Amino acid sequence: MRRKPLLLFDMDGTLITITDPASHSRHVWHDASYGSVKHRMKETAAAHGVPHEVVAGLERMAYIWNAARAYADHNGFPEEDTRALMTALNVPFMEGERADQELSVIVPGTVEALTTLRDLGYEMALVTSSSRQSTERILGSPEYGRLGRFFTHTVTRDDCLYVKPDPEVIMKALRLHGKEDFVLIGDSDHDAEAAKAAGGGFILINTRGYDQKHLKRLDPDAVITCHGELPGILQNLGYA
Ligand SMILES: [Mg+2]
């Protein structure tokens, strides 16, 4: 039996998730607004001195964010220019995350599962690519079950230079807890990559409906469909 690891939870898509993803009108609106958010992030990066080709081919907000930051870090941008770049990039990023969160509800059974895990003695933290403002709004909201009460620490985009799939957010949570062993519970390839890069376990909650082929590529330690499965899964993985 291994010692209990620190349990790290992603937020968007993991604790809260978009309702009714099949709804046609919402979906079309969502995809269109998403496309414009990414386009604006690329334009913003270019306006702040990041060459177009650095971000042109990138299709995820996190990739554009990290690539712009890395370019500034490795090409001698003065600190105030980097700050201005990232502050400007944060505007469309905030719009993207709000568009998602407006359509999101708490994943059923989450409060009950986190209560059980806490009673079993697991320490829990949140590691998210969302902003501090959005994270606190969601974690404090009765509508989302006041989830903040379960987490000793929350690490957000505003607390890091890079977002997932970079492992920085995980390393920061480990430092805050003085721990090395962790299991990340998340819904995306970015979570899988970040957990692997930080040297810990990864449990995928399949809210995105990934098929077997995709799941195999992500190589999680386990796949769940709701958080209520976590106590049993953790026990199966050999944790107390
Ligand atoms: Mg997520």
Structure in words:
The protein has 240 residues and is α/β, with parallel strands linked by helices. It has two domains: 146 residues, Rossmann fold (3-Layer(aba) Sandwich), CATH 3.40.50; 79 residues, no CATH class. It is 50% helix and 12% strand. Strand 6, helix 8 and strand 7 form a beta-alpha-beta unit. The longest helix is centred in the N-terminal third of the chain and has 24 residues. The termini are close together. 37% of the residues are buried. The mean pLDDT is 93. The site of magnesium ion has 7 residues, from loops.
Mean pLDDT: 93
Give a list of the ligands.
magnesium ion
Strand content: 5-15%
Order of H and E elements: EEHHHHEHEHEHEHEHEH
End-to-end gap: 6 Å
Outline the low-pLDDT stretches: none
Overall number of structural domains? 2
Total beta-strand segments:
8
CATH homology group of the largest domain? HAD superfamily/HAD-like
Report the CATH C-level class of the largest domain.
Alpha Beta
Can you count the helices?
Answer: 10
Helix fraction, binned, reads 40-55%
> Mind describing the biggest β-sheet?
6 strands, parallel
Q: Using the coordinates shown, work out and report the CATH topology of the largest domain.
A: Rossmann fold
Q: What does the radius of gyration come to?
A: 18 Å
Q: Please state the overall shape, judged from the principal axes of the Cα atoms.
A: globular
Major β-sheet strand ordering: 5-4-1-6-7-8
Structural class: alpha/beta
CATH architecture identity of the largest domain: 3-Layer(aba) Sandwich
